[in-house]
Design goal:
It contains 8 helices and 4 strands. It is α+β, with helices and mostly antiparallel strands. Strands 2-1-3-4 form a 4-stranded mixed β-sheet, with helices on one face. β1, α1 and β2 form a beta-alpha-beta unit. α4 runs antiparallel to α5, α4 runs parallel beside α6 and α6 packs parallel to α8. The protein starts with a strand and ends with a helix. The chain binds glutathione. Glutathione binds next to α3.
Length: 215
């Protein structure tokens, strides 16, 4: 399988976590000509990363890729066996993609001091805190988001919260997480398989932020 990825993408890190947790070996490739390029679109029509090629199958969208990996490599399971718990886990993962991540993505351009607008950063931070409060009510945090085992839901939130914390730190509006969220963050960042993936992702984020700050 070929996995198209770029190091700084939190959506790619979301899939990287699943690959690592399931012990799946893939051929990592950077999108030829960069994402969005004509060359890359000839292989992956959406032009986005992450993307996965498995023989004649070409899929983009991190959630679809992770669900496919879960079906193709069922063990270790990253969705609960119980149908209702599985539905809840999927809801949490969708909540990440639709409600939380876009608030962070909207601030990417504000990392460059020349384009920074404090009121936008403050508004998004406030909205993020509200969404994280909601997440706490919907999740179990026992200690992982959906329960006692790492699940697909953790794989989206772990890189995005890491990225958000670094971004808000450099713009002097620290992201203050609740005790529950902090305990979860500690747990996932110390997970023996997730840890090296998240450490590698941290370096990519720090590098990206250094570039943004000097632009
Ligand atoms: N919803 C997509 C989002 C992926 C995404 O936005 N990827 C970015 C890089 S982090 C990208 O490819 N951007 C290029 C574009 O949107 O054309 C997913 O879950 O995979």
């Amino acid at each position: 399988m070929i996995f198209y990825t770029v190091p700084v993408s939190n959506y790619c890190a979301k899939v990287e976590l699943v690959l690592a947790l399931k012990g799946i070996d893939v051929d990592h490739r950077a999108p030829l000509g960069g994402y969005g390029s004509e060359n890359y679109r000839a292989i992956v029509p959406t032009g986005t990363v992450p993307a996965l090629v498995d023989d004649d199958l070409v899929i983009s969208e991190s959630e679809t890729i992770n669900e496919y990996l879960e079906e193709r490599f069922p063990e270790p399971a990253l969705l609960p066996r119980n149908m209702k718990d599985r539905a809840t886990t999927r809801m949490l993962s969708r909540f990440h993609d639709l409600k939380v991540e876009p608030l962070i993505r909207a601030l990417f351009k504000h990392m460059a001091p020349s384009q920074r607008q404090d009121h936008v950063i403050e508004a998004n931070l406030q909205e993020l805190n509200q969404q994280l409060n909601m997440l706490e009510k919907m999740g179990r945090f026992a200690p992982y988001i959906a329960g006692d085992k790492v699940s697909l839901a953790d794989c989206g939130f772990a890189p995005t919260i890491l990225l958000a914390a670094k971004m808000f730190e450099v713009v002097d509006h620290p992201l203050i997480l609740s005790q529950k969220m902090m305990a979860w963050r500690e747990q996932i960042s110390q997970h023996p398989i997730a840890k090296p993936v998240l450490e590698k992702y941290t370096l990519a984020v720090e590098d990206w932020l250094r570039n943004k700050l000097s632009s």
